[in-house]
Amino acid sequence: MFYLYVKAENCYMAKVSICKLCGSSDNSLYLKTSAFSIFRCNSCTNAWTDPAPVSINYIERDFHQQEISQKGKEIRKIADLPVPWQNSIAKQIKLIQKYLPPGGSILEIGCGEGILLKELHNIGYKTFGVEPSLTAATRAKEQGLEVVQGYFPTDGLEEKSFDLIIMSHVFEHLEKPLEILESAKNHLAPAGKLMFVQTYYQGIVPRLLGKKWYAWVADQHFWHFTPAGIVKIAEPFNFSELDREFSSLVYYNKGKRSLTNSIFLLMEKIFLIFPGKLKDQFHLIISLK
Question: Which of 40, 96, 244, 265 lies at a 20 to 30 A Cα distance from 124?
Answer without folding.
Answer: 244
